[in-house]
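Write out the 3D structure for:
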Amino acid sequence: MIWFVGAGPGAEDLITVRGQRLLMEADLVIYAGSLVNPELLKCCKESCEIRNSAFMTLEQVIDAMVQAEEDGKKVVRLHTGDPSLYGAIREQMEKDGTDHVWLSMENIGTESILSHFPNIYRRCKEEGYDVTKEPIPVVPAQHYFMGGIWVDSDSQTSMERLFAAGETSCNGVHGANRLASNSLLESLVFAKRAAQKIGREKTDTAAKQAGENEKRSGNVNKITMKLQADHLIMEALKEDISSEDVSTNAVMKEAVPGEVDLICKEDGIIAGLDVFSRVFELLDENTKTELYCKDGDEVKSGQLMGKVKGDIRVLLSGERVALNYLQRMSGIATYTHSVAKLLEGTKTKLLDTRKTTPNMRVFEKYAVTTGGGYNHRYNLSDGVLLKDNHIGAAGGVAQAVKMAKEYAPFVRKIEIEVETLDMVKEAVEAGADIIMLDNMTTEEMQEAIRIIDGRAETECSGNVTKENIARLTGLGVDYISSGALTHSSPILDISMKNLHPVKEDVR
């Protein structure tokens, strides 16, 4: 097999993974002399024959490759950029001391030339060349930059989520030279295929993520919204409007249909769009929110995320409460996402705590899951967690675990918080299901995990933030809990702008 490999921009670490692998497997490598970084050749195996084409004619290069291929060897032609063929032509031009090569079209036939390439025929005649009878000078300069990255029928490269279309891609439809071809149509077709593929993957990913969030806990669906959120939102609105919205009533004497933009003012992860919309719906069920993103999406500064349409009085009166929820929840999701990324590649799950804003727990815990974290227990009725004061009240670790097992339903796991290695040993012997290592040093936690030895799940906690979580990532604990996810997350700056009346009645 003969492989043509582009050396890329030149740096040894910028060659494609596939190209590097082919160099490592090759039995014969013919490289383009000074046009190729010699550092790339270091990855070739010791038995590989390496030849410099600068000291060979084009015919010698071809003969060497064909002979090696017939002998069952793997051959790599290493050249600059991606379209190796045109690089070879350039190399031959330099060797011959010419500024062009000769291209013959005679084998195409006069009739085909005149019908398929009339403009080329006419232009060459003006320059004194009859392409039906004689070769023409060609300088394939721009072609060096055409068609190098291999893609499949969906224009996807071998790298996940990386697509290429147009003159940067090699899709098998054309070679590098797309002169006088339907290259524009080709680019449009494969760009469309890439967009469709990306759209399908985004939808699949969103659906999968939605399912995961649903399984994790606390997803604010319609039922949860009505039972758990509506009365809290109403209380927030009552807090903001104790009697009337004086400012709005002063400038809007009657209902006027209007529209306002929802704009993100900094990069982050959005969360709470349903809650945002619900604020206006509770004020007027005829208010409509049109969203251009969904919870869990990465948003950028300046991005238009949606529009709210309805009675201008409703839009003005609900603005602050709606934004308070959206900014707070998006801030938590953004911070959680940044911390969760630090745990990627480990088995450890990132948990929140009950350190939430009063009457905001349902919203804040949902935001944590949207950002990629997981919920610890929702409230005191949700699970057994024996902390230092419970242990003190019970008279010790073993007593606290024993009493919890006797009282709690058998389906409930028993988690206990420990601060010393002696307490770890006692918790293991007492049969605790989860042992929380609280405010221990890294060395103490390592020893604790050794003592537990898989007999209980492990969780570590104690002032965990994005800045210091790195010391915990290599421990191998099952869970890391962080109150900072909810109590220390900054808001994500979001605003409602460009409010204006609209002619049509939005009702």
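The longest helix spans residues 183-216.
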